[in-house]
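Our preliminary data section would be incomplete without showing what the modeling component actually yields. Below, a chain of 425 amino acids is followed by its predicted structure, encoded as tokens that our downstream tools consume directly.
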Amino acid sequence: MKLLKLLIVVILVSSCDTKNQDTIANKKDYNKFLVAKEIKTSSKYFDLWNSKIRPDSMQLTSFGVVGGEYNRYFQQTGDIEFLKKAEKSLKKAVDIANIGKPVFYRALARNYISQHRFKEALQLTDSAAAIGGDKSETQSLYFDVHMELGNYQLAETYLDSLKNMSDFGYMIRLAKWNDYKGDLDTTISFMEKARTKAEIAKNKDLMLWSYTNLGDYYGHAGRIEDSYQQYLKALEIDNNNAYAKKGIAWIVFSNDKNSEEAIRILDSVTKTYNAPDYFLLKAEIADYINDDLVRTKNLDEYFTRVKNTAYGDMYNAYNLGLYIGETKQYDSALILARREVDNRPTPESYSWLSYSLLKNGDKAKAMEIMNTYVYGKTFEPALLYQAAEVYKANGEQERVKELKGELIGAIYELGPGMEKQVHDL
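Predicted structure:
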């Protein structure tokens, strides 16, 4: 199961300086948010616009509004069907729009980013750029897509073209860029500025975005108490926010060492939120405390959900972790890793390819890929651990020693179950 621990880290965290040994979370702070509430996936506003759509409809505004509402429902429920319905509405809007077409191209591109269809998202962005419209919106989208595709030099070019320190969107992208470069202090500084701007404007959506992202970044920096407080602030705005609850559950698990409580928090989330990775995280925590019943139940739930073809490539990385760490299907892992590299040639994808090659016995090729595409190009502890294993297999003890030193400082992010594996490197 250690590969699953690595995978959780890729999603949740990226680098760490110190670890707070003190217990942080208090049930009294968050219990009121754990009451399961039915998520409303309709409204008078939605029903009004949806009623205007007919099989031969040309109601452009209706398709745009309905697509946006479906996307919102996806964010609230984690139900992939809403994301696919949003795609359908936005594709229809693109087809029939004569005026304002770039707006719908960009909206559909962002939908494809959520589905991990990055190359298609880039094509749509190109289409929006070819027509014109809001140049800064298109350049922002170009930055986002190229970061997902690992085209970092191009992404930086678009970021430079956006420079506007009074713009929330620019500041959060500048934060993301500095996080990619490993400059966590600068990342946090820009995100704090963005948070302040959102609070002054009293924009709840941007405040929520700021709090959850700062919760992550503070965790990266070992500022666990600050991370916890940001997640609580997010929940004050959106009582049902699954991501903030997952952040608190990670603090409870990794910092406070209270696995049962972490699972209780996540159980409250999965009553109404359907994303498969939450079940995988519960299985991971249960594995740490040797609760085979809870572990197996949640793994089965994950496998059942990801069989839905609507997910496409969204869970490739998670499935890679399972193929290698759980089912030992190394051949399947190698096939999927190659597919993921083709889909998004980032250091993360290449690291999985290298690791899959190692498990298939090709340690020389694994090191070649790690040297070329991963080492020195990422600061994520999960990927550094994979690199350390590849280098260890190839007798590169000096590099293993160097990486081990960094990983020991990142145990909070890697999770308590990884501590022994790191020390055994």
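Confidence is low (pLDDT under 50) at residues 9-20, 52-58. Residues 60-77 form the longest helix (18 residues). Preliminary results of this kind motivate Aim 1 of the renewal.
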